[in-house]
Amino acid sequence: MPLKLAVYPGSFDPVTYGHLDIIERALKIFDGVIVAVARNSEKNALFTVKERIDLLSETLKDRPQAMIETFDGLLVDFVRERGATVIVRGLRAVSDFEYEFQLAQMNRSITKDVETLFMMTSVPYSYLSSSIVKEVSSLNGPVDKLVPPLVKSALDKKFGR
Question: From first to last of its 161 residues, what are the pLDDT tens digits of the chain?
C-alpha cells in the first residue's frame, strides 16, 4: 500500500504552537506530512528560509514522519512532484476561510489530483498567527505560551535581547 502523504505549506515565520498543533493532528491522519516552507513568500520575513527550516527541524526532530522542505512556484506542482495528494491548511476563523477557499478552488482548477483538507485550529490557538507573535515579541511581550522555547530564544536574539 502506498504511503499517504500530505503537504502543509506556509511561511512559518516563525513556527508557532498553532502550526505544531496542525502538524501533530495531520500526522494522525497521514503516513507523512511534508512541512513546506515557502521561499518566495510576499510576506516581510523576519527569519531567513534557512533559519525557519532549522527551527522547524529542531522542533520536529522527534517526528521523523514530518519532513521539512522548501518550495517556490505553484504549490500543486510541488505537491504532485512529491507524490502527495493532499494539501493541509489550518483555519483559525471565518476570516481565514474566504482566502483559503479561493486558493483551494484555484488549485482544484489546476489539477483534480490534489485535494485540500481544512483543519480547524484548536481553541487555544484560534487567535494565533506568526505576525502577532512577531509583533508581541518585538515589543518585548510574553510569547512563551505561543511558541516553543527554541523559537522564543531565536525571537529574543532577532530583537536584540
Answer: 567 999 999 999 999 999 999 999 999 999 999 999 998 766 689 999 999 999 999 999 999 999 999 999 999 999 999 999 999 999 987 778 888 999 999 999 999 999 999 999 999 998 899 999 999 999 999 999 999 999 999 999 999 87
Cell of 57: 527541524
SS3 12: coil
- Residue 89 CA to residue 121 CA, distance in Å, equals 10
DSSP state of 125: G
> Is the previous residue joined to 14 through a cis bond, with omega within 30 degrees of 0?
yes
Contact between 114 and 86 under an 8 Å Cβ cutoff? The reply is yes
Enzyme catalytic residues = 19, 43, 92, 130
Q: What is the dihedral of CA 143, 150, 43, 53, to 10 degrees?
A: -160
Instruction: Characterize the bridge pairing of strands 32-38 and 5-10.
Output: parallel
**What does the angle CA 112 – CA 115 – CA 119 come to, to the nearest 5 degrees?**
160
* Number of alpha helices (DSSP H) and beta strands (DSSP E) in the chain: 6, 5
Distance CA 2, CA 68 (A): 20
